[in-house]
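Input sequence (244 aa), recorded before submission:
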Amino acid sequence: MRALNSVECPADRLVCFPYSGGTAAAYRAWSPAMPEDTELLAVQYPGQADRIVEAPASSITEMASAVAAELSQLGPARCALFGHSLGALVAYETAKVLRDLGQPVHCLFVSGTPAPWQARGELNHRVGDEELWSALRDLGGIAPDVADDPELRELLLPVLRSYIALSETYRPAPHTEPLTCQVRGYYNTEDPLVNGAEFGAWAAVSSGRFSVRTWPGGHFQSLADPDELIADVVSTLAESEVLR
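Predicted structure, token format:
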């Protein structure tokens, strides 16, 4: 994980999980909006950014176990997890691991992906390089200057394909006990990877309170222009503190 702000004795800890191909830096813009007692951390997946020499993770449960192990070594603080797309699945699995370690999270924020047991995505990790790269570019997950650079494509595409495969083939363990935390969901109404009518299935992952907020735009709109999303996450955490 990467610390995106500095809080000596945090009351709250918000941990953010990137999408496939995303890095911890995707959440750097969130830092100024954090309350002074909230620590902001972001996960850096193996094979990405400063971990580029490492092999990509082999499963979502492996990623979750690694993050939970790091979090369990930190000082006490109320912990909330936010994940977008692939990150929502890793966040959910991390919440389960922490629950089993006796360190349940307070809030789980999930964005831009169907519920864990539903089929996800229109991108097929088995298609050819050109087709996959074009689909990712159309979805908005690749910056234009990167999309047209053949050397960067050669470097990035295998890792992207690997993480897309993890997302598309992910299935939670059967008979999983529900979490008890609050769950807040987000999706954009023109996101081709999310069926809004089915998004409410996320409610079943926890016995706690469930709510949803939507915005117009595509799969990456709320991260590209994150002010309203950040404000909602912060206000949800503040409200949950009052209700605690």
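Checked by second reader. The longest helix spans residues 150-169.
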